[in-house]
Amino acid sequence: LNSLKQEIEGLRRPMGTQDNPARTCQDLQLSHQGLPDGEYWIDPNQGCARDSFKVYCNFTAGGETCVFPSKDIQEVREVGRAARHAGSQRSPGRQGGGGRPREEGGPLGVVQLTFLRLLSVSARQNFTYHCHRSVAWHSTTSGDHQRALRFLAANEEELSYDTSPYIKAVMDGCAARKGSSRTVLEVSTPRLEQLPLLDVRVTDFGEPGQRFGFEVGPVCFL
C-alpha cells in the first residue's frame, strides 16, 4: 500500500529525476515552486521512465523546456571559399541530421518530440550567424532582405524574411557587410511543427575574403 501511495505521489508531484521525470518543465514548476533553472529529466508521453530524457528547464522564463541540438551541428566554425566557387552555401546539418534535438545518449525520438509539442503552445530557437563581409538578414547597402538566410523547418517549410512572420533579428551586426560581426535571429512560433530548424542556406557567400560560421541554440517549448 505504501508503495502504491508513493507511486501516486510521484505522478502528482514528479521530482524531475531520471526515475521520476515530469511531463514538461512547466509541470515540474507547478509541482515545485522555487526550483532553480537547470537540467532535469522529463517524459512527455508518460510511459515508462526508461525513455525519459534530460532537458534544460528555464523556470525564469515561465517553465520553458529546452532541448539542445546535436553537438555535431551546434557550432560550425568559420567557413571560407574562393571566388571561383561563388554561390550559396548549405550547412551540413541536413545530411547529418544535425538540426534535430538530442536526448542524453542519442537523437530525441519522434514520439517524445511529438508529445512535447502537443503539451506546448509555442516554441522558439535562436540562430547566431558569425560573419565576415557577409549579410545574414537585412542589408544596409541595398536596403532590403534579398540576401537573408533561408532555413529548412522541421516540417520541410522554408523559413526566411519573405516566407515567415515568426523570425526577428535580436541583433544584426552583419547588415553593414563590413569586417567581422554577428547576427542573432530568433524564430518564435505558435506553429510548433516548424522547430527545430534542420538546415540553413547562406545566400551572401562566394566572394573573395568572405567567411561565416554559426551556432544553433536549443529549441525551447512553453
TrEMBL record:
GO molecular function: extracellular matrix structural constituent
Main localization (coarse): secreted
Residues covered by the Fibrillar collagen NC1 domain: 1-222
Keywords per UniProt: Collagen, Secreted
InterPro entries assigned to the protein according to its UniProt record, in alphabetical order: Fib_collagen_C
Subcellular location: Secreted
Record field: compositional bias (Basic and acidic residues): 1-12
Gene3D superfamilies reported in the protein's UniProt record: 2.60.120.1000
Positions of region (Disordered): 1-22, 79-106
Protein known as: CO5A1 protein
Gene name of this polypeptide: Col5a1_1
